[in-house]
Specification:
This protein has 133 residues and is α+β, with helices and mostly antiparallel strands. The chain has 4 helices and 7 strands; from the N terminus they run αββααβαββββ. The N and C termini lie far apart (61 Å).
């Protein structure tokens, strides 16, 4: 294989894996029409601790959590959220960069999820872990 072909294959593979690892969650700012959200190592670590990936669509997140034994925590949501969740378990705001939230429980652990309401698929953008009472 020539070095030019090998370089092209490596470049395509790197670009492909980078695109899969860091999906663009669009945010709006005053500096540009839109930019991509950047996640810190700590934010990514919180998500991977419960088997999730930031940027994954909510349908995939919910399915992964269900397979791992997590269920929607209606009690937590009733105590912490001002509005009842929709049929898919989300409470969403409205506006420029609106977010949705939900909570899941497994044994004595509760995780609250923050998702982008303004991106296709309602991608996961944050995870908070806490011990259930």
């Amino acid at each position: 294989m020539t070095s030019r072909v090998l370089f092209s294959v490596v470049a395509i593979c790197l670009a492909s894996s980078a695109a899969q690892a860091q999906p663009c969650i669009k945010i709006r700012s005053g500096e540009a029409p839109q930019s991509c959200m950047k996640f810190s190592a700590e934010e990514r670590s919180k998500a991977t601790a419960v088997g999730l990936r930031l940027g994954a669509p909510y349908a995939q997140v919910r399915q992964q959590l269900a397979k791992a034994g997590w269920s929607l925590d209606q009690k937590w949501m009733g105590e912490h959220l001002m509005e009842p969740p929709t049929e898919n378990g989300l409470v969403c705001g409205s506006g420029w960069d609106a977010v949705c939230t939900t909570a899941f429980r497994k044994n004595r652990q509760v995780i609250s999820l923050i998702l982008s309401a303004t991106n296709d698929g309602t991608p996961l953008i944050g995870v908070d872990n806490e011990a259930a009472p």
